[in-house]
Amino acid sequence: MRVEKRWWFAVLLLGAMALFHFLDLGQYLNLATIKSRQSDLEAWRAGQPLVAGVLYFAAYVAASALSLPGAAVMTLAAGAIFGLGWGMLIVSFASSIGATLAFFASRWLLGGWVQSRFGERLAALNVGVAREGGFYLFTLRLVPVLPFFVINLAMGLTPIRPLTFYWVSQLGMLAGTFVYVNAGTQLARIDSLSGIVSPGLLGSLVLLGVFPLVAKKIIDMLQARKIYARWKRPARFDRNLIVIGGGSAGLVTAYIAAALKAKVTLIEKHKLGGDCLNTGCVPSKALIRSAKFLSHVQRAKEFGIESASAEFDFAEVMERAQRIIKAVEPHDSVERYTRLGVDVAEGAARIVSPWEVEVTHADGSKKLLTTRSIVIAAGARPFVPPVPGIEQVEVLTSDNVWNLRQRPDRLAVLGGGPIGSELTQAFARLGCRVTQIEMLPRILVREDVEVSELVTERFRSEGIDVRVGHKAKRIEVVDGEKWLIAEHEGQDLRIPFDALLVAVGRSANLEGYGLEELGVVTGRTVEVNGYLQTNFPNIYAAGDVAGPYQFTHAAAHQAWYVAVNALLDPFKKFRADYRVIPWATFVEPEVARVGLNELEAKERNIAHEVTHYGLDDLDRAIADSEAHGFVKVLTVPGKDQILGVTIVGEHAGDLLAEYVLAMKHKLGLNKILGTIHTYPTLAEANKYAAGKWKRAHAPQRLLAWVERFHAWRRG
Ligand SMILES: Cc1cc2nc3c(=O)[nH]c(=O)nc-3n(C[C@H](O)[C@H](O)[C@H](O)COP(=O)(O)OP(=O)(O)OC[C@H]3O[C@@H](n4cnc5c(N)ncnc54)[C@H](O)[C@@H]3O)c2cc1C
């Protein structure tokens, strides 16, 4: 219905425009006609000033709303007929109202379509318009590089607020309106439109137009100077860069800075490698590997093995995770980074001024270091919610769960996100009776519903008690028995447990190292701009402490930007590009994603097509007894351009790499289809998904003709 209305409206508009041209009304809107009719028009105004004013106003609004030519002549005529004061008043309001109507028409007719079709690509522009749209509009109004009707229509397609559009337009057009209305008061002396605006006047308008942008830059610079005012800047610096935190973000930042021959100090208070190596990715994946082995033993019959069993010591499996950490550790060691040219300082860092960082070593000694730039890469820590009674039990988190050597019999896992889900399945496979408790209606809530359903189904088939829609209310300890009381559909349910693992999210590390004292702006994370600068332009942040993603590879990606920006600013800066960030959740079936999923595409009203290829069809998956899951590709309607991919199944994280490359380098599904994939591999699934898309887009008409051609050839 809405679409129909729009069509009618578009037809009406086009009809009005066509009528204007058909009746050749433009002939009345040229300088010669107005000049020849000037005395009649003046007499008309003198006879009925109010009617003349109102009609002229309405005609002007209509002409600008319909984007008709002749605005300049009408503005001149307003000066000639109504004089400078009334002419200004009429034209200023009529042109702004008309422009706003054109803006609304463009937004209503095409805005939704443009944003849904090109929203992803327009994202940066949208952010820019939301932030500085008013400034740009003001400049465009003053500097006549584009016709006004183009500006009205184009602005309607951006997310600028209508009120902002209106008042900035009115303000921005004032100077030009004045020039033309004023010239109109001397209409008899004007011979051509081009003579009205002299090069000098044009230059002044350009300067006036650029002024707000320049002024904003100056204000930004002054604000930056103001926040530095409290501190005395050292005359020279000992180093170019100090990096606080030796996790994924900090290590890569320091590495890049050293590779660029900068003098860089990396300060780590605990262990190089940070969360990923010591308490995150590495031990969790080691544990998941052991658990997967056990699950295969359980599935022996599926592989044609009559019976298989495994005896294992829980403590030994946990020790293996530590051995894996030790094996990976050399990659992140002090020795390696020192060899790479990084000055590694072991101790706790505290920022004492925008250019000074104090390091406190384990023996209590302190050292003050000076630097031109600082990168905050202090990471995050598990968030433990203040559930009443939680203090009565020992809380396991991703920080300390690795110390477990005795297997808890009943493990309650609070949290249905990636970390909670990975640990739930791993510990269940290691013999714990696990209850997973999630407040939301499903686990892995960022993924599409069918993904959550597949994983939940698998968890339940492995004996995991998945409780979704359960809100932890309190913890009780009664006669030594521990209970988690969870509210579910208005009822309190009691879940007994021996150990409680909390994995409900991770909070950025923001306290205790000088951010508050310095005045670095923080919210849930350190607040940064597109260049990853904090409110102190020489202090940057990357990784979990900055967000928005909490992945090792996202931290490493940001690290490149902070290192290069910190070293090159003010000469050159790069805006962090988050367009293609992949991730995987290492449960079974594995879940991997890049770009949009269906949920997000619908939420953001982005037009898309879905191609779904089931892995139950894939030879290798069948041979491996892993014929479950799917590859789901979202594409731009009618095109092979990939908007996002979700893969669920064996080695989904690895399979995704091909799509990540394709999206990053703008390769479409046709390119994937035209690439040879080794038979029989799981990776062939990507090609088959592309093939499925191709079949759905086969040119049916052409094929019908081809069929006739073949029939003709057969005689
Ligand atoms: C269980 C688990 C599994 C995970 N699995 C994956 C996965 O499979 N894939 C993935 O991509 N991501 C995974 N992650 C997330 C990943 O570990 C983090 O995104 C990544 O470690 C963030 O790196 P970072 O450098 O920002 O922070 P961190 O690794 O936390 O490093 C911050 C460092 O700063 C140090 N520090 C803090 N304050 C100071 C100070 N004042 N002075 C000196 N040093 C300081 C800390 O000691 C720490 O070493 C997992 C996380 C967990 C918890």
Biggest sheet statistics: 7 strands, mixed
Cα(first) to Cα(last) distance is 52 Å
* Percentage of residues in helical conformation: 40-55%
Oligomer: single chain
- Poorly predicted tracts of residues: none
Q: Supply Rg.
A: 33 Å
Q: Count helical runs.
A: 23
Query: Tally of extended strands?
Result: 22
| Structural class by secondary-structure content | alpha/beta
Q: Which ligands accompany this protein?
A: flavin-adenine dinucleotide
Beta-strand content:
15-25%
Gross morphology is globular
Mean pLDDT: 92
Please provide a written account of the structure:
It is a single chain. The protein is of the alpha/beta class and 715 residues long. The protein has 23 helices and 22 strands. Strands 1, 2, 3, 4, 5, 6 and 17 form a 7-stranded mixed sheet that branches. Helix 4 packs across helix 5, helix 5 crosses helix 6 (148-156) and helix 9 runs parallel beside helix 17. The longest helix has 72 residues, at 71-142. Flavin-adenine dinucleotide (FAD) binds at residues 244-250, 267-270, 274-276, 279-281, 284, 348-349, 377-380, 398, 419, 509, 513, 543-545, 550-553, 555, 586.
